[in-house]
Write a structure and sequence with these properties.
Layout: E1 2-3, E2 9-10, H1 12-22, H2 24-41, H3 43-46, H4 78-114, H5 116-131, H6 134-145, H7 149-175, H8 179-186, H9 191-199, H10 204-227, H11 249-254, H12 260-284
Antiparallel strand pairs: 1-2
């Protein structure tokens, strides 16, 4: 804790919060993310259209008073599909991040704390996974297991956890010889208890930052794989598979409402998450001034 001039004490959490709130881009990112999440969650309250309701009398209509973002090639309301598609894209990003954190923190903690042959084996596994181009492996696995939200989450989570594992390992290597770790060992605590109670709480700051960026990577990966037709299955909408319309040159030139809103929301969400991640990194860094 730091001491104010009037002898009041300010906690490190409060200092970090103040530094974060001073970062205008990070605050703007939080607001945008909250707005997009709330709009997606409240989709049934915002629009009366469903994702599968077709109107053959209004196929590929431009935006008007009835359909504020027009209709697609089957007469479905684009705005409704955009809201419901946000649920899927955000879910894939968050769920895949959770898979990455669970595997990455576990493997990184084991490698960093125990070292030796255990560390070498885990790092060789990480090297093998990371030496192959991500999209080549992701596309290959998706083609084998098939498209779908569940498969997409598993693919992203199991192929991208090495990034978090390397961060966790590096942080543990830098703190595992500290006095409080040695004292815990001298008290007879088990390795599991030391890792859970003394190691992981002290490395959560970089893990938290990496987790936010993992959500952005998950959303981008979902969009890429869905655009290729091996991500979220149609007619279930996602921001990624709504971009499939952009594969047609005629649609690109004349029917902007079919692809531009989804692309804009992907860019907006990913940028906002990156701004928040940068803000958290600066706020949690004790070397930066409050």
């Amino acid at each position: 804790m730091r001491k104010k001039k009037n002898t009041e004490y300010v906690s490190l959490n409060e200092i970090s919060f103040r530094k974060f709130m001073k970062n205008r881009l990070a605050v703007a990112g939080i607001i945008v993310i909250a707005l997009l999440v709330l709009m997606s969650a409240a989709a049934p309250l915002i629009t009366d259209y469903s994702i599968s309701r077709t109107d053959l009398m209004n196929i590929s209509n431009s935006p008007d008073s009835s359909h504020i973002l027009g209709t697609d090639e089957l007469g479905r309301d684009v705005f409704a599909r955009l809201l419901y598609g946000g649920r899927v894209s955000i879910l894939v990003g968050i769920a895949s991040m959770c898979v990455q954190v669970v595997i990455g923190v576990t493997m990184g903690a084991i490698a960093g704390y125990f070292g030796g042959i255990t560390d070498k084996i885990i790092m060789r596994i990480i090297d093998i996974i990371m030496c192959f181009p991500f999209f080549v492996i992701a596309v290959s696995v998706a083609a084998v297991v098939g498209p779908g939200i569940k498969n997409l989450i598993i693919i992203i989570g199991f192929l991208m956890w090495p990034n978090i594992a390397r961060i966790v390992r590096a942080e543990i290597l830098s703190i595992k010889e500290n006095d409080y770790i040695m004292a815990a060992k001298a008290m007879g605590l088990s390795s599991f208890e030391i890792i859970k109670s003394h190691v992981l709480p002290n490395i959560m700051s970089p893990v938290l930052v990496a987790s936010t960026l993992a959500i952005a990577n998950g959303i981008l990966t979902e969009a890429s794989l869905s655009f290729l037709g091996i991500g979220v299955r149609l007619p279930e909408p996602s921001w990624g598979n709504m971009l499939i319309a952009a594969q047609n040159i005629g649609t690109l030139q004349r029917e902007w409402w079919l692809w531009m809103p989804a692309g804009a929301l992907i860019i907006l969400m990913v940028l906002s998450i990156n701004f928040v991640g940068d803000g958290l990194r600066d706020a949690l860094d004790p070397r930066t001034k409050a």
